[in-house]
Amino acid sequence: MANAFFSDLLATISERGRTLLRRGDGSDTKQDADGLVELCNALLSGRGEASGTAMAREVLDLYRELDAAGRRAFFEALVRDFGPDRERLSTAIEKWRAKPTDEDASSLHFASEPRRQELIRRLNRAPGGTGDLVAMRADLLGMMNGHTDLAALDRDVSHLLSSWFNRGFLVLRRIDWSTPANILEKIIRYEAVHEISDWDDLRRRIDPVDRRCYAFFHPAMVDEPLIFVEVALTETIPGAIAPLLAVDRQHLPIEKARTAVFYSISNTQRGLGGISFGSFLIKQVVEELRRETPKLDTFVTLSPVPGFMQWVKQDKDLPLSDEDREVLKRLDDAKWFESPETTALLRGVLEPLAAHYFLKARTPKGRLIDSVARFHLGNGARLERINWLGDLSPKGVRESAGVMVNYLYRLDDIEKNHEAYANDGEVVASSAVKKLLKGEGRRLLDMRLS
């Protein structure tokens, strides 16, 4: 209620300011990038609070009306014309060189700040400005696409968004069937791991006693989940996604639950790319679940491996024999997983290959290839288990040949595991995963088949 009242108040102030602005201007604002740049300069020149808020709203509204070429021209102008005040910066540098003091260092810091940062701050004062700036950065990221000419602008926008979306401002809310429909609709739309087919499917994921969903929200975007996680409460660690999402599954009485399974984590705002909330979300949800259900003693993910098959197809240095490569050709059959003989042969090749993918394979820059692995290992999880045929959905078969993995969050080891990965690049893994890498898993499989 308080947020709604404050938002309405700001909107009223802004609208009155826009009326005054138009009366005093006497001309229509240009509907192109040049006109928008003029308005931005006027906004930075400093006016009253009401007119400044109104002008910020005007800038954001006019930006929305620009086509792709106009938006790029606007971004280029912000890079070119809204950098630091060079004369002021030069003066501050000379003062620092002549007599370096804390005061001069502070002056140098503020003089070096690009004008566009203050512009972005003033745009954020407009009603709904935060959400519009997040959407604007999504446009910016789409236009960069590997090019560096807009990188300076992105650094400034990202810097400010990182401050405004600091963990201290985020609010954790449980999503259940009583959550407003407009938010539930966004959960359906934003789900990025396991598609939610309809409202009944959504209800099966958030309404039963053994299911949970949590999301982070920001006070300036109260109806927009920033990131959300879906959780299944189970007795043991699962190895496949289908039983968790089954239409006719039996609900587990809460007193029997011992394991919390994080089976889907979805970021929702492209404009907040690079600003990580996931580690905070998992850790806070763990605390919420422990308070609510003290008997829970295992916290684990059931995670996809979205880049595995792409790596298998493109990497020329895979640890494979000629015989293994012949076996991999069986993946060309779209229904390969329906043949017990084929699945047994492929398992003997793909499980050790998956272990190599996680434990040994790296990008040219030395990073783990898999983004999901980087996320969970960076949070202090342990690679616990590789699950053969864990996801036989069309997406799972296409991206990972059905392979899924469990990352275990053992609370006493999180900090140690994080340090090992962050400082030394070490992938903390269970002995079962390491045995696959050594080939022991395949030898055992051959013995079973013989």
TrEMBL record:
**What range(s) does the Malonyl-CoA decarboxylase C-terminal domain occupy?**
168-409
GO MF term (any one): malonyl-CoA decarboxylase activity
**Organism superkingdom:** Bacteria
Give every Malonyl-CoA decarboxylase N-terminal domain span.
82-165
Q: Which GO terms describe its biological process?
A: fatty acid biosynthetic process
The protein depicted here goes by the name Malonyl-CoA decarboxylase
